[in-house]
Specification:
Elements (H helix, E strand, L loop, with lengths): L1 E3 L4 E7 L10 E7 L10 E8 L3 H17 L6 H43 L5 H32 L3 H7 L6 H8 L21
């Protein structure tokens, strides 16, 4: 596609041959003739691309630079485009290899992770002491919390005097109990038979 006549600027879209799964890679190159072309290299850039990663784009730019330098003094656009076409075909072939490599890499990483999990962390004196210090600190914190809770519970517990002061019914509760029982409280006298042996003053 011609973009302008002065200076001559145009784009060429280059597509690779279809790969194993009918995949293709594509790039659109923009060329601008400089005043002394072909005795000086044309200006070139990649204006769009499909299915190429950053490394591929960098490689194509380097390839264009190298081919342009090698072909100074000759009409070179066809040569540059042909070189890019070959490069794209190589990239399509590499996609399969790349995918296989990525798959293998992921499998290796998963295997390493599994080994690490199974193997655990080797115990050294240093990491044992670190663990023990943390463990002791956690235990101490638990004990402190428990003591604090017990202390709080103790504060909320009322003494006998406080209970009597709060509820005056407790003053007569024993009398009520005896009345309800009909004053028939049974005493087990056998418990008091050997009072002499107790040496009470």
């Amino acid at each position: 596609t011609v973009l302008s006549e002065k200076p001559t600027t145009f784009t060429i879209t280059v597509t690779s041959e279809a790969g194993e799964n009918d995949e293709t890679v594509q790039t659109t190159l923009k060329f601008t003739y400089r005043e002394k072309y072909p005795d000086e290299t044309p200006l070139y850039e990649i204006v769009s691309q499909e299915n190429l990663d950053d490394n591929d784009v960098t490689d194509i730019i380097k390839l264009l630079e190298q081919q342009a330098e090698e072909n100074l003094g000759m009409v070179m656009i066809f040569t540059l485009v042909s070189a890019v076409q070959e490069k794209l075909n190589e990239i399509v072939d590499q996609i399969k290899t790349r995918r296989e490599e990525e798959k293998k890499q992921k499998e290796r990483e998963a295997e390493e992770e599994e080994k690490q999990r199974f193997h655990g962390t080797p115990v050294t004196i240093e990491n044992f002491l670190n663990w023990k210090a943390k463990f002791d600190a956690e235990l101490l914190e638990i004990k402190r919390k428990k003591m604090k809770e017990e202390e709080q519970a103790g504060k909320n517990k009322l003494s006998g005097k406080q209970l009597f002061e709060m509820d005056h019914n407790l003053d007569t509760s024993d009398i009520q109990f005896l009345e309800e029982a009909g004053n028939s409280v049974e005493v087990d006298e056998s418990l008091f038979q050997e009072m002499d042996d107790l040496e009470l003053e």
